[in-house]
Amino acid sequence: MGDKINVTLAVRELQGKKVARLRKEGLVPGVVYGHGFDPVLVQAEYGVLEKVVREAGKHTAVHLTVDAKKRIALIKDIDRDPVKARIRHVSFHAVKANEIVTAEVPIRLIGEGESEAEKAGLVVLQAIENVIVRAKPADLPEALEISVESLKTDEDKLLLGDITLPEGVAYADVEQDLELVVANVYEPAALEAANEAAAGDAEEDLSQVETEHGADTPQDNQAEETRPGGKGQDEPKQSNVDANK
Question: How many helices (H) and strands (E) does the chain have?
């Protein structure tokens, strides 16, 4: 929620491997798709889309203008260069303003450093970072917040059920486990011991993998453009996507 995120996208003509030319020119290719219309190939300056991705993530509605048409969309997929982490492609899923949608939103701890536990030298660690909720696009929260100020001892914890959901927002899973631990409190010494044990296990596992399988093998190169959409979403047919690459 908060200020609207607006962006104007240009219709894109280059497809497939030719989009490499766009990236060299500082442009990012993308696609806008949704129910009731054919996918629209789009592009925008890197700095513009990077800002939108940073502010919206995959949980905040973006107000698009494409070829003089306005749409509300959620970012469905962000393809990044595996080495440089630069954005290579963005897929937008257009939705209706009164449509209930699902999105993964971050969980944000607030009041860090103010709890009795932390003042006593204990450590508060977040156990889960995100949760999937359902709401109308305009009601999707930037984050679900929960205060740590009630934590006092290493026996205390914060649960998902301790979060107060904003009006109009519900968990996507109607049987969501509200006993799911969001944050735990640890003694520093116990935490250090656990980390050392975990590091030892990881080294042992890695050694076993190398012994059984040998050296790493190169991964297959990713396609020039990422297929938009995902399971359970209105997405273009695969034949259409292949034709648009």
Answer: 5, 13
